[in-house]
Amino acid sequence: MSSSPQTTPARMVSALLAFLLACTAGGFVLAGLAMPLVAATGTVSNATTSLFDDLPTELTFTEPSEQSVILAADGTELARFYAENRVLVASEDISQHLKNAVVAIEDERFFEHNGIDPQGLIGAAFNNFTGGQLAGGSTITQQYVKNLLIEEGRNSNDPDLIAQATERSLARKLSEARTAMAIEKQMEKDEILTGYINIAMFGPSQYGAEAASQYFFSVPASELSIPQAAMLAGITQSPARWNPISNPDEAKNRRDTVLAKMYELGYITEDEFRESVNLPIADMLNVSAPVNGCESAGISVYFCEYVVKDLLASESWGDSQEDRLNQLYRGGLVIHTTLDTSKQQAAFDAVTTYVPVNDPSSVEMAMSSVEPGTGKIVSMVQNTNYGSATPEDPNATTVNLNVGMDRGGGYGFQSGSTFKVYTLIEWIRAGRGLDELVDASRDTYTRDDWTISCAPEYADAYNPSNIEGIGSGMMTVLESTKRSVNLSFIDMASQLDLCNIVGVAEQMGVRSGNGAALTPNPSSVLGSNNVTPLSTANSMATLASGGIMCEPLSFTKIENQDGDVIADISPSCVRVLDEDVADTTTSALQTVVSPGGTGFRAEIPGHDAAGKTGTANMDYHAWFMGYTSHEASAIWLGHMEGNISMFYTTINGQYNIEVYGGLYPAQVFSAYHTRILEGVAPVPFSLQTVAANENGATVLPQGRDNPAIRPVPVPEPEPQPEPEPAPSEESDPAPPVEEDTQPDQNPGEGDVDEGDGE
């Protein structure tokens, strides 16, 4: 008698699935009702097969999450970010050994079935029907479907979707099977296998074979050997149990099981099998633990953290900050930044040459550099290691000393005499000249002497002083700028509106660390506001570009995992100063960076430079900010903990009676710009105006501004620190350094303790 159609394996599976579906849907009552249909196998077969006739024709899944990468301007990798450590690779970038191993151990009939394996399904269904756990029978395609659904739940932060994709029920298995069959109709076998290898776990925290290959063996997935491929293929069943690092013996047993299956199926020869099983686990491993986030960026870690915060705050891409964060860690983004790696190295070398990391002085230094006309941040460094302070590394910090609180920084630091630049600019904007004489002797001001239109309540009595109270009579604005005379600038400010002075500073990009508006009180003229190095560098870039202020720019382009540009950032610039005002200011600030100027150490051989020194009261903070035609920089030196005097401090083995902006910060400026301009043709400042002459004014001695009064300190045995050190006169002449009296951190209105400054 010929074989009846009812006895074929396919119809047996259909009948069994009908019975199991009935059991799941309605319990044993419905199962009893279904049994007559099972007996009539032809009818049941047709009915059950129809479950798979109406398959989905359009399948959409979220792309598997992938690492995002942050790049420097030249394409150098700075850091990677991921929620799951995964790197998607193409089929040709996956070793054939791994493909063979995965098929051998996971789904040996993968190339024969259409998404579901009848033999596997019979075993799984029988196991479930007899009371065992639902297990086995899943093809690679079904596992691919399951992993895609789990990934979709992760990407959308939907725990219910994850639960549905992992629940142990026949309904889920049937849905999974339907989707698997649909996928088989739309994708080639190699596409499915590649997709599975990219999404499955091949380690305790490694998703996809590329990440796992790099982690366990430090090789790409394309170069996996036979035993390496077998080990990875075996891990997926239980990533923790088969972890070769924590469980090498069990991992070897599992690897050898996979190798035996590969040999059985003809994927490897007997010699290859024997050679592979004899290879010790320890000889296979070459672990390269990945670093997730900016800590892998080395000397650029603080810039990297700034970029991340900039990305999350930018409305140029992503629907919300939460969406942007999700894309950063899951979207496989490629983020192009403005950082110039050669300049970054030059900046770090300059800073740490003068103030090494963990110098015994415990002083910190930070430096930012900006490209004029674009606002691109080309370098950003500080002499600290990233992390939490320890006894071995007491200065380690996660605080970016270059920026404000909204970008991972702090409150900023008192600016000292660098802030005089903005009084000078407002003076020029008001139509006043550099050759005009101002009073460098007056040291008493009343409330009525001030114009503060935006906040008149800040007007108060003020008693500033030059160093040691020495006056200097009348002198020109130009000479006052070159020598940074306090009382000259107070006299100038009293003839202006203080709101305009702090206003022009803000228009040029100067920002406080906490984001608050700058305070227009009398002491602000000498630098009582806390500001950040990046923002002051940006203000110098405004002068270098002839009065055009550009918002600081840290990234220029973002691409998604398909290579599509999702954000293309152009400089955001606006003219804030007339060109002649900017150029006249530059002509004055050039005299600062010249012999006899307070910033003479900032000179750059063969190149024009301009800038301003600054030191806060009691040498709490020291600054230099300056620029060339190519680039603008700001350097801060001090203690990040707050106002701590740097009198009598040994820095990098050099003992200093005082520490001021014209010393270490100016030297760093010169060292950095000299290095980055090596081989670059000089580009003189193209000025629309020139500085006025001194009009025959007599310049009287100005404390540190006069070589006969205050030379550069020479090394000597370090004395015991005194509670209230007073500057002393030295006999040997030396170039001038800047006078800069500066109020305490939080002075009361009109009650400022003026002391020694730069």
UniProtKB/TrEMBL annotation:
Q: Where is this region: Disordered?
A: 697-758
Q: Where is the Glycosyl transferase family domain?
A: 75-262
Give the compositionally biased regions (Acidic residues).
Answer: 727-742
Penicillin-binding protein transpeptidase domain: which residues?
370-633
Give start-end positions of Pro residues composition bias.
710-726
Q: Which UniProt keywords apply?
A: Carboxypeptidase, Glycosyltransferase, Hydrolase, Multifunctional enzyme, Protease, Transferase
Describe the reaction catalysed, as an equation. Preferential cleavage: (Ac)2-L-Lys-D-Ala-|-D-Ala. Also transpeptidation of peptidyl-alanyl moieties that are N-acyl substituents of D-alanine; [GlcNAc-(1->4)-Mur2Ac(oyl-L-Ala-gamma-D-Glu-L-Lys-D-Ala-D-Ala)](n)-di-trans,octa-cis-undecaprenyl diphosphate + beta-D-GlcNAc-(1->4)-Mur2Ac(oyl-L-Ala-gamma-D-Glu-L-Lys-D-Ala-D-Ala)-di-trans,octa-cis-undecaprenyl diphosphate = [GlcNAc-(1->4)-Mur2Ac(oyl-L-Ala-gamma-D-Glu-L-Lys-D-Ala-D-Ala)](n+1)-di-trans,octa-cis-undecaprenyl diphosphate + di-trans,octa-cis-undecaprenyl diphosphate + H(+)
Is Transferase included in the keywords of this UniProt record? yes
InterPro entries in the record: Beta-lactam/transpept-like (IPR012338), Glyco_trans_51 (IPR001264), Glycosyltr_51/Transpeptidase (IPR050396), Lysozyme-like_dom_sf (IPR023346), PBP_transglycosylase (IPR036950), PCN-bd_Tpept (IPR001460)
Q: This protein's superkingdom?
A: Bacteria
SUPFAM superfamilies the UniProt entry points to: beta-lactamase/transpeptidase-like (SSF56601), Lysozyme-like (SSF53955)
UniProt keyword S-adenosyl-L-methionine, yes or no: no
Q: What is this protein identified as?
A: Penicillin-binding protein
Name the source organism: Flaviflexus equikiangi
